[in-house]
Amino acid sequence: MPSERRLFIKRALYSILGVLGLGFLIPAIRILAPPPRRERALVFFPLISEDNLPRSGVRKAELSYTVSGREIRRRVFVVVSHSGLYVLSAVCSHLGCLVNYRREKKEFVCPCHGGRYDISGRNIAGPPPAPLTMFPSKLEAGILYVGVRV
Q1: Is 65 helix (H, G, I), strand (E, B) or coil?
Q2: Phi (first) and psi of residue 85, to 5 degrees
Q3: Cβ proximity of 115 and 99 under 8 Å
Q4: According to the model, what pLDDT value does residue 2 have?
Q5: SS3 for 150?
Q6: Secondary structure letter of residue 114 according to DSSP
Q7: Among 16, 95, 130, 143, which is most buried by a count of CB atoms within 10 Å?
Q8: Residue 123 CA to its chain's centroid (Å)
């Protein structure tokens, strides 16, 4: 009969160790797992009045807004072309340098590594892996508003 007692004690010990192991494993998984993604709200901020929009071409502007008590400033380009009115980020998709608009060539150029974008923000030359970011925008009551996820 000692073997049955030994078998019972072994199984009980393994069960206790298994429960303790799970007790340590579950918090470790919570720590290592990425947090759930929170959907950020799209908020529209005023950029410029309709009177200051270019008739055709590109105009540089600065988008300024406050989130959680912190003021944020972003350089953007307001573009009016045959495709319509849209707002492009001035941040190069390669390494985050600020691009400039070359009116004579009708393209955006990154001074850091020679990246080039066409008037619609698509990359046409150089190392940029993606086009310039296009912000949602709307004209309302004579003011151009730009949407930002906050």
Answers
A1: strand
A2: -105, 130
A3: yes
A4: 62
A5: coil
A6: -
A7: 143
A8: 18
pLDDT digits (tens, 9 = 90+) for 121-150: 999 988 989 999 999 999 999 999 999 988
Condensed to tens digits (0 to 9), the pLDDT of residues 56-67 reads 889 999 999 888
Cα–Cα separations (whole angstroms), residue 48 to 30, 121, 146: 46, 20, 9
- Tell me the one-letter amino acid at 102: R
pLDDT tens digits for range 98-126: 999 999 999 999 998 889 999 999 999 88
- The residue behind tokens 């590109």 is 58
Q: What is the amino acid identity at position 91?
A: V
At 15 the three-state DSSP class reads helix
**Closest listed residue to residue 73, CA positions, set 101, 98, 103:** 98
Q: Which pTM was predicted?
A: 0.72
Q: What is the DSSP secondary structure assignment for residue 18, as one 8-state letter?
A: H
Contact (CB, 8 A) for 45 and 136? no
C-alpha to C-alpha distances, 107 to 117, 121, 133, 147, nearest whole angstrom? 6, 8, 15, 24
The two structure tokens encoding residue 28: 């470790």
Return the sign of the alpha-carbon dihedral for residues 52, 145, 77, 96. positive
